[in-house]
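Posting this for the archive.
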Amino acid sequence: MTSDSDTTLGTDGSQPGSNGTQQNTQVASVSQPALSRNSVLGAYKVTTDGGNCQIILSLTKWSGGYRAASRGCPGKVADVSAWDVSGSQVVLKDSGGSNVANLNSAGNSRYEGSTNGGQSITLYR
């Protein structure tokens, strides 16, 4: 009788494990793995609502995290002077350590997000 009750546990009438395992796999693929600083550092082209520019992320310790240098960036993105990784996000900061933008990995050394002012921003190589 235990085996009969086990086969009716799935919400769609499927056997336990077949649907539950698939759902768990889908959830795992949606969550992004934590980034490492070494995988993020380097030079990037930047596209933002105000135009295009460059940002270089280094591993030199700096106020707010690690040293970043922007070149030709418009708006608040011009204020970026530090960066760090927080879980699965790249966080760009100004010289006071305040967040300027949060970006998520979009794959292939591409990071997409928005500034605190709501501008879209993309870093890519």
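Confidence is low (pLDDT under 50) at residues 2-19, 21-29. The chain has two domains: 1-31, 37-124.
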